[in-house]
């Protein structure tokens, strides 16, 4: 297995993902939300680029059994049902429903990766399930979505953790950037939340009072769910 890491949504060039297994990571908070929604029984998730696309799709599908979620500038979008907190997608709200979601970075990173052979969504919450699901694949790329086209601590730490775990598990060969991210993780593995909390996006969410989301999203391996993108939808593998 060969592993590479892409460090922001802007750096997802078609040749970097073509015919590879791609895992898109946006720990804070898009891919944590998606993984949670599927774990809580969502039927499917439709990631879209803009709020307008989300409203159009909702019109097409009808309002019944459809939930609109997402954020801009980390706050809920006017007219949407929910924002981008994983706690909004409890079983009572999301079971058997379709979630249409648009976020600033995470949904863009997914839609920029459509040339992948296999496209998965990961976070700390399901890191072990992802590693198990891809351990026999040949070429793996972790997309650390970042924030506003910049590197973020949380996504890079999560990519580094999975790269590290695959190196230990199956002797994966890491690219230079994957070695750097695995090293970042390894040096901080006893308290990844502490190093992650120095990040800009973490501080922004702290300023907005989203402490419960931050605590939740930094938990490793609590959901045995592998979201896979197929025919425009994320479903459980
Ligand atoms: O950018 C994104 O995709 C979001 O996850 C950002 S936020 O954490 O909801 O602000």
CATH class: Alpha Beta
Into how many domains do the coordinates divide? 1
In CATH terms, the superfamily is: ComB-like
Report the β-strand fraction as a percent range: 15-25%
> Termini, distance in Å?
21 Å
- In order across it, which strands form the biggest sheet? 7-2-8-1-9
Description:
39% of the residues lie in helices and 21% in strands. With 237 residues, the chain is of the alpha/beta class. The chain has a single domain (2-236), classed as putative 2-phosphosulfolactate phosphatase (Alpha-Beta Complex), CATH 3.90.1560.10. Strands 7-2-8-1-9 form a five-stranded parallel sheet, sandwiched between helices. It has a four-stranded mixed sheet with strand order 3-6-4-5, with helices on both faces. Strands 10-11 form a two-stranded antiparallel sheet. Helix 6 (127-134) crosses helix 7 and helix 7 (153-170) crosses helix 8. The radius of gyration is 16 Å and the shape is globular. The protein binds (2R)-3-sulfolactic acid. (2R)-3-sulfolactic acid is lined by residues 26, 28-30, 71, 74, 84, 103-106, 205. (2R)-3-sulfolactic acid binds at residues 26, 28-30, 71, 74, 84, 103-106, 205.
Spell out the blueprint of helices and strands.
Blueprint: E1 2-6, H1 14-17, E2 21-25, H2 30-39, E3 44-47, H3 51-61, E4 66-72, E5 75-76, H4 91-94, E6 98-102, H5 106-111, E7 118-122, H6 127-134, E8 139-144, H7 153-170, E9 173-174, H8 176-187, H9 192-196, H10 200-207, H11 211-217, E10 227-230, E11 233-236
Parallel strand pairs: 1-8, 1-9, 2-7, 2-8, 3-6, 4-6
Antiparallel strand pairs: 4-5, 10-11
Helix pairs in contact: 6-7, 7-8
This protein binds (2R)-3-sulfolactic acid.
